[in-house]
Give the backbone structure.
Amino acid sequence: MRIILANPRGFCAGVHMAVDVVDQLLDLCKDVPIYVYHEIVHNKHVVQRFIDRGAIFVEDLNEVPPGHIVVFSAHGVSPAIRELARSRSLTAVDATCPLVTKVHSEAVRYARQGYQILLIGHADHQEVVGTRGEAPEATQVVESPDDIPNLRIIDPNKLVYLTQTTLSTDDAAVIIDALKKAFPNIKEPPGSDICYATTNRQHAVRQIARECDLVLVVGSKNSSNSVRLTEISENVGVKAYLLDDVGELCHDWFAGTPGEGRDAVVLLTAGASAPEDLVAEICRSLLGTYGGTLEQRDIVPEDVEFGLPVTLKRLMREKGIDPEGRKIRVGNWQITEDAYGAVPLTVSARR
Ligand code: SF4
């Protein structure tokens, strides 16, 4: 088997920051429970690892006892949830990705200017629920072009569209085209709301999948950007499977590929919330079963970092820790033969 590891893959800067927040709080506050509102990121392994260390995940802020610490997940929350936390005297540590916050700010600004907002995304996704909550009266969610005839438009010249950060760029383009056709004067956001990490991971799959027999995406079923990676692959005609971990690897998937898997070319990537050790474990399993080679394909360089939330910095200072000494930095993954299986490893640049 020839395994090609897409680069970039896995943790984005926002997920890295959010995971780091919970990690540090668990270290910092060993005598009080740390509550997390919703899954910190959409990955069952990340969540379980924090549960194992004592974090308590809640779906309702009323489950958090007054005065305790609660972390808001990377997907963001609505102003109503922030207000509820205040009214219950909770210490809220906001791990919302700054790129989600950017979309919230756009929603607030356009609503103030009297625009109706058409928010392209999945209505029940926590990020969309949070963004919509910034301007509920002004916002309607558009999940597909089929929703357009049912929109309640007051003034077609006072419309703007925004998007969820983790959409398929292919799908979003179709909806945006349909919106522009229906409302030629609709305003665009100042820059793409689909974030750099989503765009880069999708671009890597689009670039590499065509030369592969199969694509494997590591990520949880409720991870929007992971599911989108499988769709991008299928859009270019290559079968893709989403798996949480090595336990879900199904060898039937390789039936019909060259040499029943032994001579297959497999692209392995990971959604923005999937930890890299799960990717490495899958590599080891595949190489152990089929033999072969491992190559990392560098498509887009990434060098994005986000700072820690202000409230966490304050809590750190109260414990005598200088938060400025800590920096979060996520570059492209560096891989070693040891972690991924004892085979010759090559790294190739983008084509
Ligand atoms: S996928 Fe994008 S928006 Fe979501 S946490 Fe990562 S960087 Fe932020």
In short: The CA atoms of residues 305 and 329 lie 5 Å apart.
